[in-house]
Amino acid sequence: MVLTGGTIVTRDGIHRADIAIRDGTIAGIGQEARGGQTLDITGLTVLPGVIDSQVHFREPGHEQKENLEAGTRAALLGGVCSVFEMPNTSPPTTTAEALDDKFRRARGRAWVDHAFFIGASPDNIEDLAELERLPGCTGVKIFMGSSTGTLLVPDDKSLARVLASGTRRCAIHAEDEDRLNERKALIKDGASVEIHPEVRDPLSALIATRRILELARAAGRPVHVLHISTADELPLLAAAKDIATAETTPNHLTLTAPQCYRELGARAQMNPPVRDQAHQDALWEQGIRGGVIDVLGSDHAPHTLEEKALPYPQSPSGMPGTQTLLPVMLDHVHRGRLTLERLAELASWMPARIYGASRKGALAVGYDADLTIVDLNATRTIRNDWIASPAGWTPFDGKTVRGWPIMTMIRGRVAMREDEVLGSPMGQPVTFETDEGD
Ligand code: DOR
């Protein structure tokens, strides 16, 4: 098949070029692209298949909020070709059996390619070096502070043992557990969710990020610090590029405290919290434009509206996001806040590279034909009724955006077109360089 007439975003820039696909792989670009069936995509722009490297799909354990079928369908509708799923399910993904169970559940039900993280826990530290090398495993995820679920490795001694057990890049939830516990005293009866960014304050994030960077350097173990939310962490991360990569979310770049809590209540509650304009400005300036942030992940973390209606702090943290990641970020591109090339780097190229995913994240010969095809001029309004997750809502309900995913192609097959999923779920486990015996 040859895609003709599109504008493509490559590592060398943006240009008009045809793309030839054979056996699910990109076989030629530009002049080399010759072949049988053609698909005219004139007027559309092709990004390398977006990878959402931070999603919580709740299966097993809380399928009423999200599950592997609906979560991957949400991703597909949002133009996402691969997802890396987090281990704080119930039970948590801390053993080979639990990992295998997720792959079995995903077979024939996942709409996009997928990989799963192993959770670090005090009980599996010695096994992590082996577990992180299981096929389809993205690597180890460490929760330094309590969030949704039971996973927690709070102290430096245990963290050092986790970092010494294995070699692959570890994904880190960096909030300091001791400080989070101290700060709970701030929550008085009848407290509003508006206090959330004060309870889990910038210092909680800064302390944990500083600790993990020191521990990582001491261990010589690369880490990836997830959902960066503060201005304060950015200089530390900028000075730690030898050992650490960093991620932020569309939520932290788009929603702003205190307005988001006033307008959305606990629906805007997540960990680490959405913060004020000054933090958001720094995330854009130093983080996105200055190069400190490497990856954008949605931190898709659905909870039901009934749960979100509970009084703070019983209201759980997290919001759906995989389906809106790309539309929200394309709107930021339209507003001139980042370039399309930078978006492709943050949402396609880097998620693949930092975790070592094979043949993903670029429009280049020999890569999987995972294509996120967008119309940069389409104006649409995001609505709750478009959301595929059983939770059935988005913090961006009512937001009008310019830029929309029109087609999602997974290993050469058109799996979504014009807001409709096509065929049956054909998602496969992602292959990593470690699976190929490097
Ligand atoms: O807000 C969050 N929700 N942050 C996390 O770290 C976990 C996530 C969830 O699983 O609900």
Tell me the layout of helices and strands.
Blueprint: E1 2-4, E2 7-10, E3 13-16, E4 19-22, E5 25-29, E6 38-40, E7 45-48, E8 50-55, H1 68-77, E9 80-85, H2 96-106, E10 113-119, H3 128-131, E11 137-143, H4 156-164, E12 170-173, H5 177-183, H6 196-199, H7 202-219, E13 223-225, H8 233-238, E14 244-248, H9 250-254, H10 259-264, H11 277-289, E15 295-296, H12 305-308, H13 325-334, H14 340-355, E16 371-381, E17 400-410, E18 413-417, E19 420-421
Parallel strand pairs: 1-6, 2-7, 8-9, 9-10, 10-11, 11-12, 12-13, 13-14, 14-15
Antiparallel strand pairs: 1-4, 2-3, 4-5, 7-16, 16-17, 17-18, 18-19
(4S)-2,6-dioxohexahydropyrimidine-4-carboxylic acid is lined by residues 56, 88, 147-148, 173, 270-271, 301, 317-318.
